[in-house]
Inverse folding.
């Protein structure tokens, strides 16, 4: 058995989600290789080589991998798939975009967002917004898997000494052209990797209030900012703030839900958090059923108080 | 544009307001007497396709669903929103994403659409695969998780949600788009349109007619409840909350 993990990176640095994906590969067992496809991505390959428990790094460095488009990367993965029993990527936006393409080209199923490994062919994955955990067994020769990062503790980023080898790039398919990319600039930690998340819902009443109240709190706690779908739909914050079934799945040490009622779709994205705090004026809000600490209060008073108390 | 067909695959799923229950024997979730609806992302896909036709960009919108006879209802809903006609690929098999992608591929071979718009994810199996798989099988470009779509001069320019922001891709048609939440807000089907939808054309095929092997690749061994999170304590005020977080939970 040999696992191929697709590295997630921006050509300069390796994304932390790769470490959780390697953790899942370790549970499967067998040798672990990492594919780094990019342009001018030598630093990423070197970082990948240091990951504990990884045997080999394969680097495909070519200009047409710079943007990480699914069409070109999938063709590359398939070209190098021979000999691998498992192909894994993190279940991030990038991984979800890429991996089903790989699976279809190999004519195998994809097992999406696994949270546990039962055996090399049997995996646990959430369905129905996490309300039903399905144990599924794959009959395919190659298992193509996306890994829910919150289900596996990251392996050590240091301590390994994998060999790095260059592999041939596949042809540029030229199917898509990137016109522009806007990454939200923020000094705050990334939502998927933050230890503390301050998340706001419809109860904030406006985008202005959302920022005015939650930003000082997030600053105080060095937290990432998140939101419910209702807050995103109401236009308070951009879509990439959304925590939930169809947004980001998070599991920080501390999740503070403010003015969030707790629809099942939202709970699906945050209920694995270690400690959950809910602040809501409605004592019957479902969010209190999953909260470790609940406070029924008017958030417009409670949040400034909370910031003052933390000072 | 003279002749630009858009194909929109739609899935019949448990309504998003229903909290499903896992069966006691662990064989699956209890779907008896549960409200079924069109997958919300597929509604967004239909809406987007209809808007493109209304804008004169597309000539025809065809909804397609794979599954039980009851999927006819979902297709009628799609036609009430504005799809021109519908295709049911009828099967009572457990249709998994790869099989559905192949069925849609076979339908696309008959219909020759220039754009296929999928919902990014079905809210039952939460797989998020079918659009990407179909694009791979066709060798077409894909723009997943779309928040804005512009079609002109044989090109689709799509803004899509990515981790930490957004990007805009330009693709030559034919191409695949999968919808994210912000793309549009689907209209409500009006009664006259619901009545009109009943008279629209709905063709039915079987997977065998299309020459597609739909044998499942994954077997579900069991389905269980997620680990239950027990409710914690209510605190009286902010002071008590901060004290608990500091001294009890030790997270701040």
């Amino acid at each position: 058995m040999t696992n191929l993990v697709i590295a997630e990176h921006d050509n300069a640095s390796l994304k932390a989600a790769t470490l959780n994906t390697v953790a899942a590969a370790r549970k499967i067992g067998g040798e672990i290789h990492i594919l780094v496809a990019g342009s001018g991505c030598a630093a990423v390959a070197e970082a990948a080589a240091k990951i504990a428990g990884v045997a080999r790094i394969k680097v495909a460095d070519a200009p047409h991998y710079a943007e990480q488009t699914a069409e070109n990367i999938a063709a590359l993965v398939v070209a190098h798939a021979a000999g691998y029993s498992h192909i894994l990527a993190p279940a991030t936006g990038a991984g979800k975009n890429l991996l089903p393409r790989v699976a279809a080209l190999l004519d195998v199923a994809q097992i999406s967002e696994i949270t546990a490994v039962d055996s090399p062919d049997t995996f646990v994955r959430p369905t129905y917004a996490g309300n039903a955990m399905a144990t599924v067994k794959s009959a395919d020769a190659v298992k193509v898997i996306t890994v829910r990062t919150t289900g596996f503790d990251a392996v050590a980023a240091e301590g390994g000494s994998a060999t790095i080898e260059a592999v041939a790039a596949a042809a540029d398919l030229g199917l898509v052209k990137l016109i522009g990319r806007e990454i939200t600039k923020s000094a705050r930690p990334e939502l998927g990797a933050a230890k503390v998340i301050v998340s706001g819902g419809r109860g904030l009443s406006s985008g202005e209030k959302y920022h005015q109240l939650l930003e000082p709190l997030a600053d105080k706690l060095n937290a990432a900012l998140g939101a419910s779908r209702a807050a995103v739909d109401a236009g308070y914050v951009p879509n990439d703030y959304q925590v939930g079934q169809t947004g980001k799945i998070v599991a920080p040490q501390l999740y503070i839900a403010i003015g969030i009622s707790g629809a099942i779709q939202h709970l699906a994205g945050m209920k694995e958090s270690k400690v959950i705090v809910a602040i809501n004026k409605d004592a019957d809000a479902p969010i209190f059923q999953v909260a470790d600490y609940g406070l029924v209060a008017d958030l417009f008073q409670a949040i400034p108080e909370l910031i003052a108390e933390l000072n | 544009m003279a002749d630009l067909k858009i194909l929109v695959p739609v899935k019949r799923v448990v309504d998003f307001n229903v909290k499903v229950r896992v069966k006691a024997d662990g064989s699956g979730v209890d779907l008896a007497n549960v409200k079924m609806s069109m997958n919300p992302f597929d509604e967004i896909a239909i809406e987007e396709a209809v808007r493109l036709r209304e804008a004169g960009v597309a000539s025809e919108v065809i909804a397609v669903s794979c599954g039980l006879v009851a999927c006819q209802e979902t297709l009628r809903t799609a036609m009430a929103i504005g799809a021109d006609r519908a295709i049911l690929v009828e099967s009572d098999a457990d249709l998994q994403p790869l099989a559905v992608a192949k069925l849609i591929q076979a339908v696309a071979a008959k219909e020759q659409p220039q754009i296929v718009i999928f919902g990014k994810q079905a809210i039952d199996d939460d797989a998020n695969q079918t659009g990407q798989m179909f694009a791979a099988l066709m060798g077409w470009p894909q723009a997943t998780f779309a928040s804005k779509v512009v079609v002109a001069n044989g090109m689709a320019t799509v803004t899509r949600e990515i981790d930490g922001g957004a990007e805009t891709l330009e693709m030559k048609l034919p191409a695949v788009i999968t919808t994210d939440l912000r793309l549009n807000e689907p209209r409500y089907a009006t009664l006259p349109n619901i009545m009109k939808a009943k008279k629209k054309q709905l063709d039915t095929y079987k997977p065998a007619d299309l020459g597609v092997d739909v044998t499942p690749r994954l077997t579900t061994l069991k389905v269980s409840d997620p680990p239950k999170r027990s409710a914690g304590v209510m605190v009286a005020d902010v002071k008590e909350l901060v004290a608990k977080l500091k001294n009890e939970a030790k997270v701040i």
About this structure: The longest strand of chain A covers residues 31-38. Chain A touches chain B through 87 residues (CB under 8 Å).
